[in-house]
Amino acid sequence: MNKEQAHQRYDLIKDIVCAKYDVDYEQLKTDSRAPQIRLPRQVIHYLAKNLTTLTLEEIASKTKKDHATVINSCKKIENAITPLKNGYVQDLQLRDTISTIQRAVKSHYEGCKVSNLKDYYTATFLFNKDAIRSVTPNLKFEVNVKDSQRRRELADRRNVFLEIQTRKEVLKDLNDLKQTLESEILELEKEKNEIYA
User: Fold this and answer.
1) Which of 18, 19, 42, 176 would suit a FRET pair with 192, their CA atoms being 20 to 30 Å apart?
2) pLDDT per residue over 121-137, tens digit each?
3) 55 or 193, which is more confident?
């Protein structure tokens, strides 16, 4: 990939990410740390580092940041989407978004195969944006019905660690509910004792 192609690919990444998060690219060049600005900026840095041959300094200059900010962005995204040894993924939604955008960028003029319905809706949302149409007029998305969202969810459920984590969350919710009910019962007992005293 030569420099011109790398810059073109960066522009494609930038347009897709801005369309996905519904932000203006100029906002990403500001010093704002608001989540709705910070996350798309981090996603652009991460994808640009992984999908282009641009240097960290070149990527940083495009959003008016320094190379340390790009490194930090990449670490944050990597930590959020990489499964831990126990199979836990910190941000499944971000992982799916990154995966969809990566496929869209890599396929560019070849078409993008989307493996599940959730990705399909995301991809359709991206494709409907004028900015994407103008950069990649031949970009197409198709659904692979055999590998649906349900199948991916079943695969996730088979992961013992994810199942344990889910059950722990359910138990925690039940414990919270139990404590609330017990405190309400105590209050009612006090009121009853006061009435009959």
Assistant:
1) 176
2) 455 555 444 445 455 55
3) 55
For the ranges 67-81, 86-100, 164-178, the maximum mean pLDDT occurs at 67-81
188 and 91 together in one domain = no
Query: In the structure encoding, which two tokens stand for residue 80, read together?
Result: 């959020």
Residue 57 has pLDDT above 90, yes or no: yes
**Same structural domain, 90 and 168:** no
Answer whether 0.70 is exceeded by the pTM. no
How is residue 24 written in tokens?
């203006």
Nearest CA-CA partner of 30 in 74, 72, 65: 65
SS3 per residue for 129-186: CHHHHHHCCCCCEEECHHHCHHHHHHHHHHCHHHHHHHHHHHHHHHHHHHHHHHHHHH
